Amino acid sequence: METAALIVVLVIALALFFDFTNGFHDTANAMATPIATGALKPKVAVMLAAGLNLVGAFLSTEVSKTISHGIIREDQITPLTFLPIIFAGLIGAITWNMLTWLLGLPSSSSHALFGGLIGATLVGASASAIDFGMVLSKVVLPALIAPFTAGVIAFLATRLAYAITRRYDNKPDGRDGFRWGQIFTSSLVALAHGTNDAQKTMGVITLALIMAGWQSADQADPHLWVIIACACAIALGTYMGGWRIIRTLGKGLTDVKPAQGFSAETSTAATILASSALGFALSTTQVASGSVIGSGLGRRGSTVRWGTVGRIAVGWVLTLPASAAVGAFAALLVVWFGNWGILIDAILALVIIVSLFMRSRRNAVDSSNAMSEVADSGLAVKVPRKAPPTRRQRAIEREEARLKAEAKAREKAERKKADAEAKARAKAGNTSAKKGPQR
Hints:
The protein is mostly helical. The chain has two domains: 2-382, no CATH class; 389-439. The protein has 14 helices and two strands; from the N terminus they run αααααααααααβααβα. It has helices at 2-37, 42-56, 62-71, 79-103, 109-124, 132-165, 178-211, 224-240, 243-252, 258-278, 284-298, 306-337, 339-360, 391-438, and strands at residues 303-304, 381-382. It has a two-stranded antiparallel sheet with strand order 1-2. α1 (2-37) runs parallel beside α9 (243-252) and α12 (306-337) packs antiparallel against α13 (339-360). The longest helix has 48 residues, at 391-438. Mean pLDDT is 77; it is low at 372-380.
């Protein structure tokens, strides 16, 4: 029993650290665009995001129920077997989060968590302990549908925003005012992130408490102290501001105008809030990226470099199996060495975390230099400085050209007529001059 209690404590500590990494890993989803367009100062943006993540964590627990009472069939695994599985799964998720943070890749923390848990369960228990139907309906399908849906919404919103503000008299269109709207919409994304991502850690801790017998399996909602702890962890991580990923997304979005940023953030927030209410554990990163691409397509003249989008998508695809492989290896150590395997996992996790952090110090990225380089993922959406004319503008140009041609033709005809009249008068004058002497 003492061993189980120690493992539960280790699981809770590791889960809260994962929540912390989730916070600084996903800060860019809400704040990269307003930072890039100048709507918010970097430190103000992350502070605002941290506060709203904290509030959002208290608004809903539906996603937490999906984690604690959905993906893993806890009734088929004994507590002493399953607690190390959760521990190993968290190691897989944290390892992938730290690695992608070091590389500045906007990968999915959610899929890293699911992958780690699934890989550890496959090795530590069996495939029958995983509810693949729930994984498909609550994780895989939303991951495929949500980015597309968010992209379509962002595309339509961008079209509407430009249609409403478009002017044809060469006067200012007022689109810089969308920067003020970005403050609201990015705040809404941060709030939505708290309602979705913080709950995943709540679900993991609740699952550990159920397996240890510290919480009834009939109680789906997490304890209040779990909600508070997870909310504080993700808020603190958000405040630290994953500047590497903000640089990747934000610097790449410098060509995205405020109207596009406003539309993309509105789409992202709406999609995530709706999924939180339905209990879908979405990847905020994928939804935000889908919205950005949709807003890029929605603006006239913009082109999407599908090769770059494909490389980003490959990173998304690798997240689940890569974290699953690490989780499976950590679980394998437990299977081989028992409780000593848990100790080995803990030491390895600490070494990996410290090593990656120390490696990041060699080329530190913070609020002062986060926008100093152009990241490769920023090439996904390219917007020319001068967009081609719309159909209405082309029609106006054709009409102006027609009127100009008609005026030129009239002027030419009048000039020709005047010349003819002048010649006629000159000829008449010459004829009169010749007749005069004959008289």
